[in-house]
Amino acid sequence: xxxxxxxxxxxxxxxxxxxxxxxxxxxxxxxxxxxxxxxxxxxxxxxxxxxxxxxxxxxxxxxxxxxxxxxxxxxxxxxxxxxxxxxxxxxxxxxxxxxxxxxxxxxxxxxxxxxxxxxxxxxxxxxxxxxxxxxxxxxxxxxxxxxxxxxxxxxxxxxxxxxxxxxxxxxxxxxxxxxxxxxxxxxxxxxxxxxxxxxxxxxxxxxxxxxxxxxxxxxxxxxxxxxxxxxxxxxxxxxxxxxxxxxxxxxxxxxxxxxxxxxxxxxxxxxxxxxxxxxxxxxxxxxxxxxxxxxxxxxxxxxxxxxxxxxxxxxxxxxxxxxxxxxxxxxxxxxxxxxxxxxxxxxxxxxxxxxxxxxxxxxxxxxxxxxxxxxxxxxxxxxxxxxxxxxxxxxxxxxxxxxxxxxxxxxxxxxxxxxxxxxxxxxxxxxxxxxxxxxxxxxxxxxxxxxxxxxxxxxx
Length: 460
Prior knowledge:
Blueprint: H1 2-6, H2 18-34, H3 47-56, H4 62-77, H5 80-86, H6 91-100, H7 118-131, H8 133-146, H9 148-152, H10 155-168, E1 172-175, E2 183-187, E3 191-198, E4 209-216, E5 222-228, E6 234-236, E7 253-261, E8 268-269, E9 274-275, H11 288-317, H12 336-370, H13 378-405, H14 422-431, H15 437-450
Parallel strand pairs: 1-4, 2-4
Antiparallel strand pairs: 2-3, 3-7, 4-5, 6-7, 8-9
GO molecular function, one term: flavin adenine dinucleotide binding
Organism: Aureobasidium pullulans EXF-150
Keywords: Flavoprotein, Oxidoreductase
């Protein structure tokens, strides 16, 4: 896509399809009405790329999907540091994901999707995260939430929600934080009513649809549902202002009397009001958890790879050789310790990538093999989960080490706020605290030492 690589000066001349602007402007205005200090980015800044992507249509091959992800990452990378500082709600960035087609990469081709499997979906997430960790994370969460009905829903719900999401090019957020037990669900005859709040609600402000999760009153049964975000029952706090992943809109939300038809309760029989599968007891339904854990590992890896690529560009153009070492070199790229550090970081990232790709293949294969009959055994599910846990451990350790270590090979001037090299570490440090990696290490220890596969939990 030459126009993306050649025209990164953001001199936009073309007009964008009104539907994209209208959709996001309406959402921004609605949110601003509730919080006057709320600011969002303008989709019009990417209008040239919207027009180009629209003219090219969605990719038709695996290699083309990966190139499309690289193109989007290149666009985002030109001003990621500035957008990170501004901390505006990423309406523009989500509009770019929409027009590029990346939201549809896993969708059925019959509804206009890319028809790719998770193995490619994970690589697309990783590529986007190289350019902007926040947007890579949002894409990853969207792909998981957009496939929720496939994993925990009925066959009818799977088809209905795939058609809804892919044909409308919807972005899906999620109010699913298992540590919060304050989302109450009550039965009102032909529908359910959701009330409560969530401390974290990734992507909700900028979403078209939101995934809910809670426990039905009077039972221990969990209910997942997908609801339109543009309705009065949502009250976003706009309070996400953390050190990293600043454009993920992961703040809190209050949910007030939002009605959901029983027919939209994923995996439930609307007549008997009984769950067909329990998301924590049926092995296939529990694949939702390792699937999203591997989303995490992939954007950690992408962020770390992006940091090393960014640092390489800085070192080759701006880092000065040290003149007091006794073995003085003319340029920083000739210095032993810089070459040694880059080589070490590169090797560890290659190893992390190989492991993550293997885990991605395991997830893809189990869905391809068992997705129709949903006949996964507890042992099969557990072994896949341990591949994912291994990738999560290694990408956590490696990404933290690399994103902190790149300052050693770029120098003190690289700590400048406008340079933005610190955002890579801030991004991985923020999300790697999502669930303590120590428990993943313990889990792997029990698997290796005692041959025990893990019991499914909301984080396993």
